[in-house]
Amino acid sequence: MTKNTEHSKLYQSEGVRLLYNNSLPGILITFVASTTLAFTFIDDANFHGKLLWWVVMTLVLAVRVVDTKMWIKSDAERKNNKKWTFRFSVGCLITAMLWSAYAVTFYPQFSIEELSSTNVILAAMAGGATSILSASLTLAALYNIIILMPMSILLMMQSEQYKINLGGLGVCFTIIMIISSVRSANYIKEAILLRYRNKKLVSRMEETIRVRTQEVYEMSNKDSLTGLYNRSAFLAAAESTELDFKNNKTTGFSIFFIDLDGFKNINDTLGHNVGDKVLVNLSARLKNCNNTDTLMCRWGGDEFILLAKEKDYSSASELAEQITASLSLPIRLDDQTITLNATIGISVCPDHDISITRLIQLADIAMYSQKGKYPERFAFYNLDLERDLRRKVTLNEAMKDALDRNEFRLVYQPIVDAEGQVVSFEALMRWRYQEQEISPVEFIPLMEQSGRIVQVGSWVLEEACKTLAQMHKHSPDICMCVNISLIQFYDKGFVNNVIRVIERYDIPGHLLHLEVTESIFQSEQMMINQKVSELQQRGVKFSVDDFGTGYSSLSVIQNMNIDYIKIDRSFIQHIEQKGLSIVKAMMNISQSLNFSVIAEGVETEKQRQLLEQCGIPYMQGYYFSRPIEREKALDYIDYSTAET
Q: Is residue 497 included in any domain, yes or no?
């Protein structure tokens, strides 16, 4: 559409609007003027003629009123139709013709007063039309010509000089009115165009304000990375749901507190850019798992909160399973594959509480209680969980300075060969806090969750190698097994720290055995393989602890060139049933993949005999010795050597 065409349509639509908006006052003035003129100078001679003229004028004006009402009631699109301009123009010009007809028809009977009054009224009507009809130059000009020219020409044809003068004035007034109409029409066009431009400017401003308002809303209510609610917006929406429950508008809801397991390692090793991409990916999965009426929030870091309508435990469990299954699927980013798990705590309104703040706290407690537990990845809140959490918080705080207070120590459990001779020791950590022995099952996961395992693990490695250096003097071939957390592998200084300790205590690398769990196979293999390879080049041996209880991949074991696997005690305890088949199978596999097997958890002579019959080369367990202090471990070496 060209600019001229656009402007023409604009003038058309706005012109119709101006004509009809001004029509009713003009019609009223015309009715008053026609009535006054017709009945002021009426007499017996012209009574019927003027009455007929007045009736026709009144009917025309009534039709014009009806037409105006129809325009007002029509919809916005139809108001701009050209037919309205035509209808208005016809009505207006007929009115002008009636005025002219009055002047020409009744002129012979005019008294000087009626002549003067008629000229004044016609001039006034023409002058008013110049303004009222300015939206249409053609209509304004025609109206003035029709209403003034016949009377002016008639007067100019008379013999009296004053009438001739009046007729000339009428012609001049007509010309002046037409010129004024032109000016008024141009002014109206400029006003319409200016109004149009102002309207577009205001529209653009309104759109800009709308966009900016939306942006401000997004910034203040949405998490900039994931697009989910931020904490403040979520709490506001959740409090509204809480109010609905209190007002009996809803029967309850559930709060899901979701935490990503191992996300900190992603940020620390692969960088925050990769971590952000992971969060965006997982947030999209979270949206796909939930209904549109579920409130979803990034609570902070790698924590998410949902407010879901599911309030019965069965439905909430199904949703939790769906979420954990979705979030645990591998994430492919460029040339990297990342796999994370999620832990979920659930609190239910009104079973556990009705306050949003308290329900979030309870769901958080349930989530922390489930951290590191398999196979279930979610838990509902209960009172026992809160007591457990208080203990965890207490122990976590106590762990901060436990190294400085010398509360940690190492004990050593022997590993023997088929002849019963000790070949190595496994260094096991113990913590005595406030005259109470804290189980490693309790405090090791806390260390891993808090990240203190890196510092404490470094201390364990140092202490174990210091002891190994002493044992080496008693028996040159004795080895030391040290458990290594996956989190330590992610530490950038891990390899250098191991090499530094070996060199510091002058230990042959092959005497140090690092034990890892099967969770290592779920991690970034390229990084793990590289660090394992660097240490193996120094002679360090690697063994897989608790083999068979988690994720097992023989191809990964082969690629990593694992030296030992330790069959988990759960299989040894049932060796007289199905466990024996598993042990035999592992021995067959070990011969193919060239690694040695250690059976841990041996507690009876019968178990030892069966393991010996299977050809298991190394064993460990209470049958041979419980974990012992350092001095007793040195004595154990001397005793074993002397007995041999």
A: yes
Neighbours of 585 (CB within 10 A): 12
555 — alpha (psi -120 to 50), left (phi > 0) or beta?
alpha
614 Rama class: left (phi>0) / alpha (psi -120 to 50) / beta:
alpha
Per the DSSP assignment, residues forming a β-bridge with 493 are none
DSSP three-state, residue 619? strand
Lookup: tokens for 341: 């798990």
CB 289 within 8 A of CB 301: no
Nearest to 126 by CA among 191, 170, 183: 170
Look at residue 350 and give its three-state secondary structure: coil
Residue written as tokens 């040894």? 572
Do residues 513 and 479 lie in contact, with contact meaning Cβ atoms separated by under 8 Å?
Answer: yes
3-class DSSP state for residue 596? strand
Q: Are residues 420 and 364 in the same domain?
A: no
Per-residue pLDDT at 205? 74
Residues 402 and 360 reside in one and the same domain = no
CA–CA distance, 579 with 572 (Å, rounded to integer): 6
Of 153, 182, 201, the last residue of a domain is 201
19/108 same-domain check: yes
3 state DSSP class of 37: helix
Structural domain range at position 589: 397-643
Question: Hey, what amino acid is at 45?
Answer: A
Cis peptide before 617 (omega within 30 of 0): no
At how many degrees (to 10) do helices 231-246 and 161-221 cross? 90
- pLDDT at residue 211, as a whole number: 65
The runs of H, that is alpha helices, within 421-483 are: 440-450, 453-474
Given a contact cutoff of 8 angstroms between Cβ atoms, the answer to whether 20 and 72 are in contact is yes
Report the SS3 class of residue 279.
Answer: helix
Report which secondary-structure segment, H or E, holds 392: helix 383-399
Q: Strand 479-483 vs strand 512-516: parallel, antiparallel, or unpaired?
A: parallel
Q: Decide: helix, strand or coil at residue 605.
A: helix
pLDDT averages per 10-residue partition of the chain, 644 residues: 55 69 85 88 85 92 90 78 83 89 86 86 82 76 86 86 85 83 72 68 71 61 87 91 92 94 83 89 91 88 92 91 91 84 93 94 89 79 84 89 93 92 95 92 87 92 95 92 90 92 94 85 75 92 76 61 86 82 84 86 92 92 93 86 61
Three-state secondary structure readout of 163-188: HHHHHHHHHHHHHHHHHHHHHHHHHH
Provide the whole-model pTM. Answer: 0.52
Beta strand ranges found along 138-272 (DSSP E): 253-261
Q: Is residue 77 part of a domain?
A: yes
Our separate counts of H helices and E strands in the chain read: 22, 16
Question: In this structure, which amino acid lies at residue 41?
Answer: F
Are 469 and 511 in contact by the 8 Å Cβ rule? The answer is: no
Q: In terms of domains, do 266 and 190 share one?
A: no
* Cα radius of gyration (the chain): 49
d(CA 323, CA 311): 16
Pick left, alpha or beta for residue 451 (phi over 0 → left; psi -120 to 50 → alpha; otherwise beta).
left
- The structure tokens listed for 238 are 């959740």
Half-sphere exposure of 363 (CA within 13 A, CB side): 32
